[in-house]
Amino acid sequence: MPQIVVENLCKSYRVAVRKPGMWGAIRGVASREHRVVQALDSVSFEIDEGELVGYIGPNGAGKSTTVKALAGILVPDSGTCIVRGRTPWRERRAHVAEIGVVFGQRTQLWWDLPVRESFELLGEMYRVPKDRLRRTLTELVDVLQIASVLDQPVRQLSLGQRMRCDLAASLLHTPPILFLDEPTIGLDAISKPAIREFVRRQNREEGVTVILTTHDLDDIESLCSRVMLIASGKMLSDGPVSALREAVGGERRLTLDLEDTHTEVTHAAARLVSRDGARVVLAFRPAEVSTAELIRSITDKHAIKDLTVEEAPIEEIVAGIYREIEGA
Amino acid sequence: MSYSLHLYGRLILIALRSRMQYPASFVMQLAGTALLTGTEFVAVWALFARFGTLAGWRLEEVCLFYGMSNLGYALAECLGEGFDKFAQQVRKGDFDRLLLRPCSTSMQVAGSGMDPMRLGRLVQGGAVLAYAAVSLGGAWDWLEIGLIIGCILSGACVFVGLLVLQATLCFWTIESLEIANVLTHGGNEAAQFPFDIYGPGLRRFFTFVVPLACVNILPGAVLLERGPTLGIPAWASWGAPLMGPLFFLISLRVWEFGVRRYRSTGT
Lengths: 328, 267
Known about the structure:
The complex is a heterodimer. Chain A has 2 domains: 49-78 and 86-246, Rossmann fold (3-Layer(aba) Sandwich); 251-311, Alpha-Beta Plaits. Chain A is 35% helix and 29% strand. Chain A is built from 11 helices and 13 strands. Chain A has helices at residues 21-30, 63-70, 92-96, 115-125, 130-144, 159-170, 191-206, 217-223, 241-247, 291-301, 314-327, and strands at 4-17, 33-47, 52-56, 78-83, 99-103, 177-181, 209-213, 226-231, 234-239, 252-258, 270-276, 279-284, 304-311. Chain A has a 6-stranded mixed β-sheet, with helices on both faces. A 4-stranded antiparallel β-sheet of chain A has the order 11-12-10-13, with helices on one face. A 3-stranded antiparallel β-sheet of chain A has the order 2-1-4, with helices on one face. In chain A, β6, α7 and β7 (209-213) form a beta-alpha-beta unit. Chain A is globular. The mean pLDDT of chain A is 87. Chain B has one domain (2-265). Chain B is built from 14 helices and no strands. Chain B has helices at 2-19, 23-51, 59-79, 81-84, 86-91, 95-99, 105-111, 120-135, 142-169, 178-191, 200-209, 217-223, 234-239, 243-265. The mean pLDDT of chain B is 86. The A-B interface holds A 11, 13-14, 65, 68, 71-75, 89, 92-94, 96-97, 101, 103, 106, 108, 110, 112-113, 117, 121-122, 124-127 and B 3, 6-7, 10-11, 14, 18, 93-94, 96-97, 99-104, 260, 263-267.
């Protein structure tokens, strides 16, 4: 029995359309035109206990709508969602007691309070027994290395420190499920891996189920065994990271170093990715043209110093998918 | 319930502490509010010095209504600060954060702010009520004193209820909430005077819709042995202050309805 079951989840918003200019603003007061945006269009998936799932998609694709519904904040139009046997939005208070949520853009802590007092207050809100809270906190403070900031008010913390404190806060009541919404956004090169390592350990050692939405594909590649891709409210792909590559036809890269910096290199089945002096990068799908065939037809026409063939990096795969979606 | 109260207490202490970071400025502002609201009463006093009575009511009698209403309003302004400033929370998107915690939303909003500065009005209301008590002969027994205290607390319930309703409006629009002040501040302005000086529409509105008359003039008239007022018999006037807590409970139900709407529109 999966821990999270989502079936045919639908949600649409009515968005007020404002006409540009002064006249539009005036007309907007009298009669507001609305546009219906389908944020979730029959989304279904299942997540088992202990999984670490990445959830990606362009802005406005429906990621946060899904997370909000799973967290019990938002009531969808139709569809079902069962998390640990409960419908989140029907039993909000019982449900939120069993999940942890971190929004990268927004802190769960009290801005003016020393971190330690925020933790104590949250402990009381979640009714964590005092001695258990102390034990959990000692552990989290140690692993996240936040002992030195515990007595500072949250507003004085750096983004990296704050994020680590927010992670600790979300786990005070030892929830079996953790939702992370862009937990590494805006972080420096040292903080990011630290956060990732912590999430990995929570997942592996404590068995916490993690759902991670992100724009940082490094998060996905270094953490997730499975990735779900959503766009325009529809689930486009769901599976291992390699399946995402399949989803775009397993594009490959051919990098060429030419003898001559001025010749144009083209092929009917290949797309030019970049051109930098004598270096040309082409993208192609092995289904359309075999690697050998492509190389032969190019070497027939041009003088080549060197060449390499590789799988496209995941950032570019996703960027390509996003481009396709926006173009469609 | 008791746990909610305990948490509310914790939240309020935190809100107060961040307010009290500068004690000197706090004392100055408290004195400022007391003075400012004090001058409001000077206008009433001047009115009676010139005309003697108002529709048959003497200054001492009006002071009873004035004092009770202002004390209730002062308590409400102080306790309802979180609801009063709720539009800011919605605008910043902080309301989602409250929904993520296993606690009632109204308790968390109530606990998010307290404005002790507003207690300056308490000084003014207290002084006016004390004047009414002394000049009306001080012949009130314990039951009647209990009724006055009940009226004040009940009045606070009505005003906090109004603030809750004002905050609930934020789930539909966060623009032009000033309109709600007409009911809170305006309600207090109106309740300072005996309601029978107003027209029938306004009278009915403040008796049956926003029951400020029920926590003010109706029981007040009983104390002043005025007989039936606003067409309500005296026996009912004794129970009228119960309308205050009832209004508050109804406003909380409306709040819950607003929260449900917020959660289905996600705006």
